[in-house]
Amino acid sequence: MQKAALPNCTFSMELLTVIATGFFLTILNAQPALGERESERRSQMLFKRVRRETSCTSGFITGGMTNNLLLGALYSASQLDACLNNSVLMANLTELGHIAFSRDQHLILKHKLGEIYTNGLPQEQIQQLGFIITVYGPEEIRTWNITDADTLALVLRNSPSTNTTNAVIANYLQRSGPLNAVALDAIGGPTLCTLSEEHLRTILPSELKKATPLDISTCTQAKKDIIYGIAKVAFQDQAGDPKAYYNLIKPYVGGAPALDLQSLAAGNITMDFQTFSGLNPVEVEKLTPQNLRDLLGINLNSLKQNENHPIVQRWVNSHTVAEVNSLGIGLQGGISAAGLGNMAIQELPGSASVNSYSLLLSICIAVMSVSLQWLL
Question: Residue 44 — very low, low, confident or very high, per pLDDT cuts 50/70/90?
């Protein structure tokens, strides 16, 4: 009987990297987070234990072996310590940083780096850490000297937790100048929203213009206002083309004041409801029905489709019934002509509506007279 041919199981280095990285991150996310002191205690206990096994029995690791993504499976933590010379670690840190070692193996590498760089990791080595950063705690990271935006980007790419990310960004902001485009791309919109208003004000319009559009939907209104002001300056050279300008300013339009929204509306930009819902509600209240028609264009009916959305309700409740009806899309509500919300004044039986208003006016005058007499 002829044997079935075995499938070709040749894998590229890129595919193995993806598989190893995915497996490592899955294991990492499944591990309980350790406090700074607990992590350091475990690191010291591990190193004391593995140092008892001083001989290398698995073969010394050479520079050529550091490209082997399966190196972590070939050497235990103790053998990694015994078989990896500091000189090889220094010369091949980038390669070793991309191997999905276990936590204990990463702790060994961290300890070795501490022996080599006794005064703290230089910025060049911080760039090469890769996965090794996962065993550094926030307090340790705060002692680093991250001043280069490229270093920030590389470190954040392998940051295992929010605490680590915040520590890395805080380190960079403390030691660097304004946030540039590389830093903005590395940090991203949601994390940018966690920064202080003071830090946001350091963003230069020219750098925001070069950055990838940022999602600032999770920012507070005050922070949206700050970022919008910077974006407005950044893209002002496109203001002559309303649609092109809107496409550039769109990610940041949640901080736009009413006057700017009216200017955009005049350009017939056709804003979608998702973007509209992220506008400042206080500023939306100031828009006229014609402003809304011009701002939303063919998407005007989305107000009816989302009539229970807070921003729609807020606009309706700040405009008259006539203004709401003038949109012609079936929205209900608004302030009555008498200014009593949705409650309309009923006509008295047998009298014209003008008599009802006269009676109401007389009552108001009488109340005011009594009040004045009481005050005097």
Answer: low
| Res. 213 pLDDT band, cuts 50 70 90 | very high
Given a contact cutoff of 8 angstroms between Cβ atoms, the answer to whether 97 and 89 are in contact is no
- Arithmetic mean of pLDDT, 219-247: 96
**Nearest CA among 137, 182, 202 for reference residue 164:** 137
Three-state SS at 320: strand
Rounded CA-CA distance 134/53 in Å is 25
DSSP string of 78-116, one letter each residue: HHHHHH--HHHHHHTHHHHHTS---HHHHHHHHHHHHHH
Percentage with pLDDT > 70 across the chain: 75
User: Closest Cα partner for 242 from 195, 200, 297?
Assistant: 297
* Cα-Cα-Cα-Cα dihedral sign, residues 329, 335, 341, 344: negative
pLDDT value of residue 162:
84
Distance separating alpha carbons of residues 343 and 68, to the nearest angstrom: 77
Per the rule left: phi > 0, alpha: psi between -120 and 50, beta: everything else, 320 is beta
Backbone angles phi, psi at 212, to 5 degrees: -65, 140
Do the Cβ atoms of 155 and 138 come closer than 8 Å? no
Residues 211 and 325: their CA atoms lie apart, in Å, by: 42
CA 370 to chain centre: 59
218 pLDDT higher than 90? yes
> For residues 77 and 108, is the Cβ–Cβ distance under 8 A?
yes
pLDDT for res 204: 95
Give every CB contact of residue 275 below 8 A, 6+ residues apart in sequence: 250, 253
Tell me the C-alpha distance between 254 and 334, whole Å.
Answer: 24
Average pLDDT score, the chain = 82
Mean pLDDT of the region 275-288? 97
